[in-house]
Write a structure and sequence with these properties.
Layout lengths: L4 H18 L8 E5 L5 H9 L4 E4 L2 H7 L8 E4 L8 H7 L2 E5 L2 H13 L4 E6 L16 H9 L4 E7 L12 H18 L5 E3 L6 H6 L4 E4 L1 H4 L5
Parallel strand pairs: 1-2, 1-8, 2-3, 3-4, 4-5, 5-6, 6-7
Bound molecules: pyridoxal-5'-phosphate.
The site of pyridoxal-5'-phosphate (PLP) has 12 residues, from strand 8 and helix 9.
Length: about 230
């Protein structure tokens, strides 16, 4: 049996466009972030060969081993929990850090970006489900976090990210996606800043997320197949 990556990829691209069009959105405003954690560089090169450039990783160590095995010019997003002692590597290897959920982490990224002479794009991760075990700032802290990060000259806040509670029925995740969009709208209104990116939706619920305004859907399993381990 051949690698199903190519048919999976073309099917997903079509499904993403269709989901956008169905709710009257321009399909070009929704991008597929290929969540490549635990996927070999060899398979990522197949995806690269199909023209894909946007990848998401959740471990700095794994990413820095893999990224040099691909051509330059890709866009790499960090989507995992980030410890402040990994901030320097994250700034070195990633174009966007989607999981900024506390001022302390943002301050460290800002400091490292400044030292590297870079500006780092970030998303603020919001714990829309209010789950104790999950990362992300509390919705009621979003405003405060945004103001603090927005004042850091080396960080450019592009929008919000969320990992809502898992629901067997994708439709049940809709209120969480809507919540993230509403928080984004409130932040925009209060600050006058533009926060275009909403990173939300994974393999089993990305269509609902797109209907609620996702601009980045983070897809692993539906693209690469089940992860080992
Ligand atoms: C693993 C992961 C994904 C992808 O999940 P799938 O269900 O495999 O599509 C998306 N977002 C984050 C933050 C992840 O860690």
């Amino acid at each position: 049996m051949g690698d199903p990556l190519e048919p999976n990829y073309s099917r997903l691209c079509a499904e993403i466009r269709e989901a956008a069009e169905k709710t009257g959105r321009n399909p070009d405003t929704v991008r597929l972030l290929a969540v490549s954690k635990k996927v070999s560089a060899e398979r990522l090169r197949i995806l690269w060969g199909l023209g894909h450039r946007l990848f998401g990783e959740n471990r700095v160590q794994e990413a820095r081993a893999k990224i040099p095995d691909l051509p330059t010019g890709g866009e790499w997003h960090f989507i995992g929990g980030l410890q402040t002692n990994k901030a320097r590597d994250a700034v070195e290897w990633f174009d966007v850090v989607e999981s900024v959920d506390r001022v302390e982490l943002a301050a460290e990224l800002h400091k490292r970006a400044e030292a590297a002479g870079k500006t780092l794009a970030v998303l603020l991760e919001i714990n829309v489900g209010g789950e104790a075990a999950k990362s992300g700032a509390k919705p009621e802290e979003a405003q405060q976090l945004f103001q603090a990060v927005n004042a850091m000259s080396r960080l450019e806040v592009r929008g919000l990210m969320a990992i809502p509670p898992f629901r067997e029925e994708p439709e049940e995740a809709r209120p969480f996606f809507r919540r993230l969009r509403e928080i984004r709208n409130q932040l925009e209104q209060a600050s006058g800043a533009g926060l275009p990116e909403l990173s939300m939706g994974m393999s089993h619920d990305f269509k609902v997320a797109i209907a609620e305004g996702a601009t980045l859907v983070r897809i692993g399993t539906a693209l690469f197949g089940p992860r080992a381990g």
